[in-house]
Amino acid sequence: METKIKVENLNFYYGNNRALSNINMDIYKNKITAFIGPSGCGKSTFLRTINRMNEFIENTRVEGKILIDGEDIYSKKVDPVELRRRVGMVFQRPNPFPKTIYENIVYGLKKNGVKNKEILNEVVDTTLKSVALYEEVKDKIHKSALELSGGQQQRLCIARTIAMQPDVILFDEPTSALDPISTMKIEELLLELKNDYTIIIVTHSMQQAARISDYTAFFLNGEVIEFDETNKIFSNPRDKRTEDYITGRFG
Ligand SMILES: Nc1ncnc2c1ncn2[C@@H]1O[C@H](COP(=O)(O)OP(=O)(O)OP(=O)(O)O)[C@@H](O)[C@H]1O
């Protein structure tokens, strides 16, 4: 098993408020890692430290290290824009641009100067196929993305992320705004995508974590209480607090 992301002694502060304390974790390549825990325990904060999205929030500070493929992403040599291309992110609410399906997918590539129509068309086809949206939208790729259902919009947002050829994709509660069938389709998609990407998902649904993740980290008050293979976390947790949470005693 290959470590893709190594987190060492990570602390994170909003002003004087410490939101993450001494996080140490290895995240493995081509696996799905789930972050679970009660509201406000720091799951989303931690996710945002992995592609430096936290830097958009004023008066915040990081201590410690996050290494991706051995490189410290907070080093001065790392360009945060390039980092966010390598570490894509999909959010809770599908957020397509108010543009066509086609333009949504090629947006980032065009911004990076790719103009060749054949290449762009090819990327649109392959990414729509890889998110299992091609058949549903092939006749309307020049129509507005906002005409799609919520679940289709979320798959389009995943296609838009994939178009940038990331190695890691961060998902922040990607199905919490979706119906059960759309949720199932996204879960199936994540299981496919892990063959090509390293995936981290924040989820409020323990069933979802149990269904799709290989590893699970349980967070409480900004600390990782337990991190292990998902089936161990759910069948035989080491820490009483993990057990209390997964059996529904709090949270
Ligand atoms: N932009 C912000 N400014 C100040 N404090 C913040 C900000 N975002 C989060 N926090 C604080 O950091 C802590 C962790 O929040 P975070 O959103 O990471 O938790 P979470 O586990 O993802 O919660 P949820 O499951 O409800 O999304 C909370 O105490 C929260 O109030």
Automatic annotation (TrEMBL):
It is a peripheral membrane protein. Residues 5-246 form the ABC transporter domain. Gene3D superfamilies: P-loop containing nucleotide triphosphate hydrolases. Its main location: membrane. The keyword Nucleotide-binding applies. Keywords: ATP-binding, Cell membrane, Membrane, Nucleotide-binding, Phosphate transport, Translocase, Transport. It is found in: Cell inner membrane. GO terms for biological process: phosphate ion transmembrane transport. It comes from the Bacteria. It holds the Pfam family ABC_tran. PROSITE patterns: ABC_TRANSPORTER_1, ABC_TRANSPORTER_2. The keyword Transport applies. PANTHER family: ABC TRANSPORTER I FAMILY MEMBER 17 (PTHR43423). This is Phosphate ABC transporter ATP-binding protein, PhoT family. It comes from Caloramator quimbayensis. The lineage of its organism: Bacteria, Bacillati, Bacillota, Clostridia, Eubacteriales.
